[in-house]
Amino acid sequence: MAMVLGFSWGGWMTGGGAEELAADRAHDEVIAALVPICLQISQDDPERASKLATITEATTYQRRDAVMAAGWATVPGAEEPNRDLAQACMKGLNLDAA
């Protein structure tokens, strides 16, 4: 009984659970570190105004895809845009609640 209480109330977890939690936190930190790059790419984009208009006109559910299509969520050296980065970049651009 004490073991069950320890896992549920004590915050204990298995090794696999700890690894998953660490991986999730590391992923979130990497995305947070990449947001300034996304914002800088958007600032340097000569087509920024038209791309922002396209993103803003998109439905809430399509905005992340529009940020990806704009090329702002593709970091230098990557071949594909990152969906999580696009989502975080939208917050940085104040487009998540627009």
Automatic annotation (TrEMBL):
This is Uncharacterized protein. The lineage of its organism: Bacteria, Pseudomonadati, Pseudomonadota, Alphaproteobacteria, Rhodobacterales. It comes from the Bacteria. It comes from Rubellimicrobium mesophilum DSM 19309.
